[in-house]
Amino acid sequence: MRKSIKYGVSAALALSCIVSAAAAAENVKIAFIDPLSGPFASTGSNGLKQYEFAADELVNKNGGVLDGRKFEIVAFDNKVSPKESLIQLQVAIDQGIHYVVQGNSSGVANALTEAIEKHNRRNPDNRVLFLNYAAVDPVLTNDKCNFWHFRLDANSDIKMDALTDVIAQNPDIKKVYIIGQDYGFGKAVAAAAVSMLGEKRPDIEIVGNELHPIGKVKDFTPYARKVVSSGADAVITGNWGSDMLGLGKAVIENGFKGPIYTYYAAGSGITAAFGESGKGSIRLISEGQVNPPYSDRAKEVYDGFRARYPEGNIDMPRIFNTVDMLANAINEAGTADDVVAVAHALEGMTYESMWGGKVYIRPEDHQAIQDINVLVHTNEGITYDYDNSGYGVLLEHKVEMASADSPTTCKMKRP
């Protein structure tokens, strides 16, 4: 849903027109700060491909924003380290970049949002906007919220609310094992699972609740054996990247037969690695719908993406939402350089996603409210597989505008 706005320049001063035209021709640069090396490199690399394609397909191919400015994605490898992320953020700022996207690790997102808030306070003429597309620690749009941060993904509490709705409807689930990575996001997932299951199904027994070091476990067999011996009927995990694959494979290989409810168990090599073993077992809570494609436009975009990247996956439709919503906000604000105006345009925006449903940016905390889906790993009914594996994720349940009335503790200070 792109708004049509007319702009004009005064012809009074020819020199001013020339300068304005030169400035308009400059690309709108977007810093992508995520892992491109190390154990989570495949996750970051596939995200980068999606950003680059979304910029070209949704913006550049259609003439860019304003009077012809193109989107340019500039990649920075943060090695999923908060410290390295802050170094790369400063490099991006030194290059005159005003927009930052990041998603892998809420620990990194926490470091970035604090640094950007501090930078913007000290440098009102050189501000930066942070578009968070996957870091889902609830604190980022609660106690640590700020005007410069927008989350285009649902936070982990919103996802868990939808997930536990589905679990609560399954009478066969009487025992649940919770396991995750030992950092802010992993702890938030565990706390939400315990609280929400207690409210919706107090008869369900939590037979395990543990955390493991992030990105350091080479063999998940000891954890898997505890899951199996606990008698759990279902597993809940927020693991991502190599930790998701390692845990899921170990649990299945050690004989677990129940559903494994996850946040990030598709694409980036994970789907291919699970293959037949994950069929009907691995479930994913996510936004967007690719199987079956929600719209003709979504199918057209995915076909184009697959033509450019034959082994690539659109496993984060919200990346495309993020790019198009930013373009819409820039056009509405009439500027790409005044990020305050762009932020105000994003606040309260309602966007019709090609992947299904609406995305609404809640003004009070900059949290995106949208449909949340539970998807199942399978090779049946798949239009688009992941990793050229023959397996993908199929829509199983949909929760419309999930947690639209959820509370927030955000007390945002606006410039």
UniProtKB/TrEMBL annotation:
Residues 1-24 form the signal peptide. Keywords: Amino-acid transport, Signal, Transport. It comes from the Bacteria. Residues 28-375 form the Leucine-binding protein domain. InterPro entries: BCAA_transport (IPR051010), Leu-bd (IPR028081), Peripla_BP_I (IPR028082). One of its GO terms (biological process) is amino acid transport. Gene3D superfamilies: 3.40.50.2300. CDD domains: PBP1_SBP-like. Belongs to the leucine-binding protein family. PANTHER family: LEUCINE-SPECIFIC-BINDING PROTEIN, PERIPLASMIC BINDING PROTEIN OF ABC TRANSPORTER FOR NATURAL AMINO ACIDS. This is Branched-chain amino acid ABC transporter substrate-binding protein. It comes from Pseudodonghicola xiamenensis.
